[in-house]
Amino acid sequence: MYDFSFEITYEPGVDEYVDLFIDRGSLQSEATYSCLDPAELWKLESVTGDAADLAAVDELLLDESVDRESISGRTCRAARTTSLLTDERRRRVTYTYLTDVDYCESVPLIAAKYVDGGALFEQTRSGDTVRWRVLVQDDSKIGMLYDTLSARLGEGRSFSFEHLTEVDRWESELLSRPDVRAEQRETLLLAVERGYFETPREATLDELAAELDEPRSTVSYRLRRATAELAKRFADQRS
Amino acid sequence: MTPDTPTDDEQRTPTDAAGGDGYPTDVLVGPDWVEARLDRFRADAPDLRLLEVDVNASFYEEGHAPGAVGVGWRTDLRSAEAHDILSPAEMTAFLESCGITEETTVVIYGDNRNWFAAHLYWQLAHYGHPDVRIMDGGREYWVEHGYPTTTEPVDPPAVTYGDAPDAPAKPEVRADRTEVRAAIGGDTEFVDVRLPEEFRGEVTKPPGSDEGAMRGGHVPGATNVFWAENVRPSGLFRPPAELADVYESRGITPDDDVIVYCRIGERSSLAWFVLEELLGYDHVRHYDGSWTEWGNMIGVPIEVGEADGGG
User: Fold this and answer.
1) Which residues on neighbouring strands pair with residue B105, listed in sequence order?
2) A102 vs B contacts (CB less than 8 Å)
3) Looking at the DSSP assignment, which residues form a beta bridge with residue B31?
């Protein structure tokens, strides 16, 4: 399996969806795409961020006339449906389905024309940058895909190749689970739920300890262990 | 969807009906022009022949314009005897195998907005075939806009070319490495049509490809005009005023001596076609050795990073 990774960087004003990520720094998006037939495409997108920033995204996320797929200067000609699967304070998950595609210059649909047997697509958005990882079994058409994708970019977008490597370890955030022990997870979830991590804190360690019926020192220790594990995993994924 | 119901007015322009959006139809025809003549392309009589040449060779088998002869760039457009374009004898044999005589109007199209269609056009210009044209928009435009396609094989009747070339009729459309080296530092404008990251020297070959060079960068003094700037998002060539501005805004004008190049000489064929045939520049040469030659040679000057702003 090969990993073809590249970034597309957007100038402000060329893509209304990207503009939101440029203007609102807390927003992050992860999406996975599936496309075997160049006439249809589906994706799951998870957007996280501060509540106010997420509220600003809602309108665009669910507006089926907004083209979040095309990388070129022309809008996809296809039928699009979007539904909201998760609606939390700091997270939205949407499902988008494109069908009857006459043309749509999105990364997965262009790739589907070149790569036989399908590919997996992972996309992350942050600020002005959209990062793509395309996983393929065979890399023989990747050179063509590189030339074609880079040429389809509309004005105000720039292409930067990162790597083409054979995959021998997995670092994806989409499929990973932090290794937090069950009692630590229980403590952590309660702490988040009660607002322990809010500023200012909405719960004290003593209150959490009382609710869990554990000594304060035990609760404190579990929270430190859990956050340390998450922090290390976070750093590993970015190194 | 039918071709005559566009949703966005950029998609269907006078190009299609007139065959070239104000460009001369003896070099550029629109898909409507081709569609109206499909029966003649398919006929045994060799007046008109349609050729499809794709970067991705498997596209042709998935469907092509009825009557279009499939051309493989790796097998048909490169010399079997040397690392070079076709020799005169090879070119004649290739044309005869496509049912083309010296009287034939040859129309070429292909994927990636006509990369290799332009390359074949340039080779035919080099050898002086009298009538050759490109179909605007290429394969993608044809397929995306619902023009007819078929998977039927096309086997044109064998013909004799006629007065076959034994040498290039227009050697002035080609530049070799000696000419390139001699032109550095002079008045010649070098146009490098590769991606900015290739121009700057950060990428020396496309991922997963063996079309590489030992050194990255560009010919000293070259201007980076990415090839895709010649076409609109739909794949049609930009209209004349816009297209002229792509070059003139960078100080490259019709009376300049120009040499174009890319990585293996296909994308720069498109730029050559634009400058020579669509914009009527006086003297445009195509350095088909391009970066796979220049970036692998010993002792030639190379510039890296952004252009220095010089000509």
Assistant:
1) B48
2) 1, 144, 146
3) none
B262 belongs to the catalytic site: yes
Q: Is B169 on the interface with A (CB under 8 A)?
A: no
Crossing angle, helix A216-238 and helix A205-212, to 10 degrees? 110
What are the φ/ψ torsions at residue B106 (nearest 5 degrees)? -100, 125
Q: How far apart are CA B260 and CA B183, in angstroms?
A: 12
Distance CA A24, CA A18 (A): 10
Report the pLDDT value the prediction gives residue A123, as an integer from 0 to 100. Answer: 96
Selecting among B262, B264, B278, B307, the annotated active-site residue is B262
- pLDDT reading at A229 higher than 90: no
Among chain A residues, the shortest Cα distance to B209 is held by: A143
pLDDT > 70? residue A179 = no
B interface test, pick of A139, A146, A147, A157 with most B CB neighbours within 10 Å: A147
Question: A27 φ, ψ to 5°?
Answer: -75, 135
pLDDT per residue over B24-82, tens digit each?
999 999 999 999 999 999 999 999 999 999 999 999 999 999 999 999 998 999 999 99
In the prediction, which pLDDT does B160 show?
A: 96
Q: So what's the pLDDT on residue B17?
A: 42
Contact B191, B225 (CB under 8 A): yes
> CB of B98 within 8 A of CB of B155?
no
Question: Structure pTM?
Answer: 0.84
pLDDT average, residue stretch B178-207: 95
Q: Which two tokens stand for residue B173?
A: 């459309």
How far is residue A131 from each of residues A29, A69, A118, A159, B258, measured CA to CA in Å? 10, 13, 19, 10, 37
Q: Which of A135-144, A178-187, B85-94 shows the lowest per-residue confidence on average (mean pLDDT)?
A: A178-187
Q: What is the DSSP string of B85-134?
A: S--HHHHHHHHHHTT--TT-EEEEE-HHHHHHHHHHHHHHHHHT-S-EEE
A235: burial class by Cβ within 10 Å (0-12, 13-18, 19+)?
exposed
What is the rounded average pLDDT of the residues B153-165?
92
Query: What ranges in chain B are assigned the alpha helix state H?
Result: 14, 31-35, 38-42, 58-62, 73-76, 88-97, 111-127, 138-144, 177-183, 196-199, 240-248, 267-273, 290-294
Average pLDDT over residues A114-141: 92
Q: What is the three-class DSSP state of A3?
A: strand
**Which residue ranges form the domains of chain B, and what is each CATH number?**
14-144 (3.40.250.10), 174-294 (3.40.250.10)
CA distance linking residue B48 with residue B51, whole number of Å: 10
| Nearest-angstrom CA–CA distance, B238 and B35 | 21
**Which tokens is A230 given?**
């998450």
Give the CA angle between residues A65, B11, B125 to the nearest 5°. 145
